[in-house]
Amino acid sequence: MKTKKMTFGAMCLALSLLLPQVFHFIGLQQAGAVFLPMHIPVFIGGMLLGPIYGLFLGIFAPLTSFVVTGMPSADRVIFMMSELATYGVMSGLLFHQFHFSKKKLGSLSALVISMLAGRLVYGLVISIGTYLFQIPLGGIQAVIMATMTGVPGIVIQLLFVPTIVTIIDRGGYFNEPEVITRKA
């Protein structure tokens, strides 16, 4: 089971690097800010792998992308790490520990709550950065602008993340195989 989780986590990390590149390759300006492609594998990984894997995916997806591709920019990477780490932890906690996986529309509910929590943390980190370092980061206006710019990506997430999570979860990929014992 641990090998499956690590493999799936590595795939989610790889997708979090690949998906933004696909959008940039198409030639869309600010495609990452509009379509939020890095968020999708973090949400999926958090829900299917749990909060610890979600935390690490949320931290390492933007950090690895920055090191490899230079995106997100250096001035944004810390904010994205805090936001995506929150997405990964919250989606994992809600889906596993709070048993949203067993509720009707549980993955959608976990996604929406995680989105709100992530944006809240994003706003808090921006506010703290503005206060501590006297850097004009835009405060709450920056969070509102980022949310408005990302509406197409939010719609994509709402459509695809619950569907993908439900298909993989119901498909039994992470279920332990039953041990068949022979009676003597």
UniProtKB/TrEMBL annotation:
Domain of life: Bacteria
Gene3D superfamilies membership: 1.10.1760.20
Keyword Transmembrane helix: yes
GO molecular-function term, one example from the UniProt record: transmembrane transporter activity
Keyword list, A-Z: Membrane, Transmembrane, Transmembrane helix
Protein name: Niacin transporter
InterPro entries referenced in this protein's UniProt entry, alphabetically: ECF_trnsprt_substrate-spec (IPR024529)
Residues passing through the membrane, by range: 41-65, 77-98, 110-133, 145-168
Pfam short name (any one): ECF_trnsprt
